[in-house]
Amino acid sequence: MSKRIVLLIYLMVVSQLAFSQGKSKADRFFEKGDYTNAAKYYEINLEGENCKKDLENIIISYYNIFEYRKASRYLKQLVNGRFVEADKTYDNEFNFKYYQILSALGDYEKGLDYLKLYKGNKSKPFDKNEAIATIEDFKLMDSDYEVEMVGFNSSASDFGALKYNDCIYFTSDRDDNRLLGKEYKWTHRGFLDIYSVKVSEENKPQGVAAKISENLNSKYHEGNFCFSKDGNTIYLSRSNFTDGKKEFDDKKNNNIQLYKSNFVDGEWSEPEKLSFNTTGFSYQHPALSPDEKRLYFSSNQEGGIGSFDLYYVNINSDGSFSEPINLGPTVNTENREHFPFISDEGHLFFSSNGHLGIGMLDIFVSEFVNNQYTKPVNLGAPINSQYDDFNLNYYNDTQGFFASNRKRADDNIYSFTQTGEIFIREYINKFEIRDKVTEQFVPNVSVTLTDRRQNINYENTLDSIASFNKNLLAGNYVLKVTSKEYYDGVLSVKVVEEQDQKHVLFLEKLPPPPPPDPVETIIAEKNIDKDLKDKDPMRFEMLTDVEGPPIVEKDGKLYFELEPIYFDFDMWNIREDSKKILDELAEKLERYPDIYIKISAHTDSRGTVRYNQILSEKRAESTRNYLALVGYVNARRIKFQGFGELFPIVECPNNDCTEEDFQLNRRSEFEIVEY
Question: Which label site among 137, 490, 532, 635 has the fewest CB atoms less than 10 Å from its CB?
C-alpha cells in the first residue's frame, strides 16, 4: 500500500518537532515527512559529514515515495560498506527493505539473500530455491479471481472501498485543498476523507463521488472504516484530535486512533474515540465480525509480535469493549499486518509484508478452525502483484474490492470476482496407460508422476492393468512412462479445482525387429521404398510433394521440415518471423484435410521447472490458436503439448549458454500423428 498514506500503514505521524538551527534543510524536510524534497537535498550533500545517516535517510525517502530503483541504488552502496569505514554495520531493517525492494523489482533470488540476513537466527532456516519456487507459484495462481479497475478512481489515492446497498464508500485524498493550508507533506496533496458514489448493479458510477459527512470528515485524516450491518454505525480510523486540535504523544507524534459514530435522525453523530485506544500508539483498519460481537484492527501497541499486529476486542452487550487480544504468531509476524476483513464464513483476510509474498504488501487469508486461525494462504495473482495490495473485502459470496498501487500508480480500487476455491483441496485423479491402436492397457510399464518442483508424487511398476488413482492438489504435473515394447511417453497434466479427473496416456508400440534375411529394396529418389506407392499411396504422396514445407520421415514418424518457430524469452506470442512459416504450414494442411498434427513446444532452462512447463503449454496453445484462427485449420486436427525444458536442442548445464543457444531451445515442432 502506498507509503504516501502512511497514516494507515505506519504511525500516521505528522512530526511537530521544533527544528534546531543546526539541522540541515534535508533533515527538516525529512522530519516533516516531505520525502521528495528530503531526498533531493540529501543527495546534494551526500559526501559531507554524517553521510552514513544521510544515506540511510535517502533510502527511506525513496522507499516511502515508491522510487524503488533509486532506493535500490543507494541500498547497494549501504550494504556494500560505502560511508561506513568507521562502523561496518548498518541497521538490520535495511536488509528487510532491500528484500522488499528487490522483490518489487522482480529480483527474488537476490532479495531472498537479504531476507535471510534480516531473519538471521531469529527463525527457522528456509531454502531459497524452495522460496523462489513458491513465489513463482503465487504468480501463476491466476484462475481463482478476475479483477478489474473500477470507474470511479481518480488521479489521487483511492482505496478502502465498501459496498452498502446501491452506494460504494471509499477513502481518498482527491480533494486538493492545499490553497487552504491543508497539505499533507508526505503526498503534497490534501488529507484523506471518506467519500461515497452511487453505482449500478455492475458497480458503474451513476454520479460524482462526494464526501459523506462534515461530522465524519475533519480537516485531518479519516481513513479506513467499516459499517454495522444495518448501516447505522460506522467505525473509522482517524487522526487523534480533540475539539479540532491534534493530540500528540510524548514523542510529538500524532497517531491514528479508532472512533465510532452513529447515524441518528439523518445525520452522523460526532465520532467518539474508542475506550481501548492508548496514547502513544496507533489503532487503525477496523473490521466487524459477521455477528458484530468482535471488532478487529491493526495496531503497534506495546507487547506485540511485530511493528504492527492484528488484534480484536470483544464487544459487550452494553457496547463496551474488552482489552485488545493479539491474534498470535500464526497470523502476526515480526513485520507488519494490516487491513483485516472477516468474511461471512469467518475467514480472515489481511495484508502483510511479513509472510512470503510476491512483492511489498500481499493479501492473505486464514481459516478459523478449532477456535484458532490456520496458517495464512497467499491469494496469489491477479490479486497480488509486486507492489502493495491491500484492503480486500467482499460484499457478497464471490465479489468485492481491493486496492493496489501496481503499475507504479497511486492507490487504485479494483473490483474482483472469485471464480475458484481459495483453500487448497485434494482431488481424485485417475491415470491410465493404453495402447494407441488397440486402446487396451499397456502391460509392464514403469510410471513416475512429479509435480513442478520435480517432487515424486507417485512411482510404481504396473503389471497387466496400467492404471492408478492419486489424490492431488490443484496444479501442474508430469507423468513419465517407460516400457520395453513401447516408445516412452510423457503427459503434462493440469489438475483443476472442484473436479475429479481422468487422464489417459496413449503409447505407440515399437516396430518389430527386422527379419533375419535381407529384403531386396531399390532406393529411389529421396530414399522412398519402391513399394511405398503401392502400400501407402497417401504417405508416398506426402513424402514426394514438393509444394510448401516438405514432409520428412524420421524414426518411422512424419514431420514437417520447417524453419524453427522461435519465441522470445519468457513470451508465448507468435513472432512476425514465424507467421509466414505457419501460413505455409496452414496451406499445406488445407491441401491434405486428413492430416492430424501434434505441436510440441519447449522452453530454455532459465526459470523454475514448473514455470517453464506452463510457459511451454502457453507456447503450444498460441501456436495452435494461430493455425486455427488465422490459418483456418480445424482445431480438432491439432493436438498440442508443452514439454517445458525436458528436451533441449542445446544442453545448458547451470544455464551456461549463449543467448543464441537459449534461443534454439525456445521453439515449437510439428509432427504428423494421423492421416
Answer: 635
